[in-house]
């Protein structure tokens, strides 16, 4: 029993660390983009990740054609997510990006209804409405418009929701390890970003890689994105989900946008208005409302 409690505490701490890491990633990406363009940064980040995870590709020889096709589609969707997300971060505040990307939690039930024919519950509909109100307050500070960066982040959130549902449909009966899937997706994002950068060379997206000498700050950002925001985050999330209840997972991961906004305020000096904080809080609340299994929670409280 003591060992289980320690593992539960460790998993909680790891989930909280993932929320912190992913929350800070928006500010780190925005800082890295000062040194290197969007497509080049994506190619570097996911190219290094692909090389590190390449040993996991050996499991692909056991996968059937349907699974491989689905993993490839998921990789293409992930490429779209990071293109929208990173260009969006370039054009909007890191705090906005951190809050708006969490809309994927409440968009997922709608996409799932469309693709997997599961109708959203009343609580999920309420979460959608709450998150839309929060997004309106956050990105517009009460105005009836989003800037182009906010629109790209919202598109990235929609693509995230679509990716979750597509991956669920394809991998439902597959025994392919998640690490192998991550390796393929990283490769698709890396090669896709490099190819796009090569096509749009006139837009200065294809540049020489910064040298280690004289660009240590940039490489520190890249190392953080690869090691912390990709490799550690995926491992920690998989480790924790196996040992934590859905309620714990939802509450801890739901804090990601808050960490992102605080980090953007401290690291980048972004000014966040009271209205924007209220909008961000509504999005976090909507994420919790949409993901916590309230019926199971009420049952556990009644039995306590």
Q: Features of this protein?
A:
single chain, 304 residues, mainly alpha, 13 helices, 77% helix
Provide structural commentary.
77% of the residues lie in helices and 0% in strands. The chain has 304 residues and is mainly alpha-helical. It has one domain. The radius of gyration is 19 Å and the shape is globular.
The end-to-end span amounts to 18 Å
Q: Describe the main β-sheet briefly.
A: none
Number of helices, where a helix is a run of at least 4 consecutive DSSP H or I residues: 13
The gross shape turns out to be globular
Low-confidence stretches: none
Secondary-structure-derived class: mainly alpha
Report Rg: 19 Å
Q: Kindly estimate the percentage of residues that lie in beta strands according to DSSP.
A: under 5%
Give me the oligomer status.
Answer: single chain
Helix content: over 70%
**The number of domains:** 1
What pattern of helices and strands is seen along the backbone? HHHHHHHHHHHHH
Q: Please state the average pLDDT score.
A: 78
Instruction: Please count the beta strands (DSSP E, at least 2 residues each).
Output: 0
């Amino acid at each position: 029993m003591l060992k289980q409690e320690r593992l539960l505490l460790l998993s909680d701490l790891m989930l909280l660390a993932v929320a912190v890491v992913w929350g800070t990633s928006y500010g780190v990406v925005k800082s890295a983009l000062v040194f290197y363009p969007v497509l080049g940064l994506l190619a570097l980040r996911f190219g290094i990740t692909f090389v590190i995870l390449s040993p996991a590709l050996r499991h692909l020889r056991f996968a059937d054609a349907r699974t491989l096709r689905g993993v490839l589609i998921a990789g293409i969707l992930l490429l779209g997510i990071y293109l929208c997300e990173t260009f969006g971060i370039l054009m909007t505040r890191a705090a906005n990006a951190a809050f708006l990307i969490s809309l994927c939690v409440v968009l997922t039930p709608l996409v799932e209804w469309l693709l997997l024919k599961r109708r959203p519950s009343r609580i999920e509909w309420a979460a959608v409405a709450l998150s839309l109100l929060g997004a309106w307050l956050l990105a517009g500070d009460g105005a009836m418009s989003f800037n182009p960066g906010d629109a790209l982040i919202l598109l990235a959130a929609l693509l995230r929701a679509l990716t979750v549902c597509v991956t669920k449909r394809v991998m439902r009966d597959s025994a392919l390890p998640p690490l192998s899937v991550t390796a393929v997706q990283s490769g698709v994002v890396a090669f896709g970003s490099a190819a796009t950068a090569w096509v749009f060379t006139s837009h200065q997206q294809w540049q020489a890689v910064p040298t280690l000498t004289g660009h240590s700050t940039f490489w520190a950002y890249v190392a953080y994105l690869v090691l912390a925001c990709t490799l550690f985050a995926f491992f920690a999330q998989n480790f924790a989900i196996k040992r934590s209840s859905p309620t714990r997972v939802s509450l801890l991961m739901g804090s990601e946008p808050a960490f992102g906004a605080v980090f953007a305020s401290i690291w980048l000096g972004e000014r966040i208005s009271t209205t924007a904080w209220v909008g961000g809080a509504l999005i976090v609340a909507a994420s919790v409302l949409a993901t916590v299994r309230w019926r199971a929670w009420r049952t556990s409280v009644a039995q306590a």
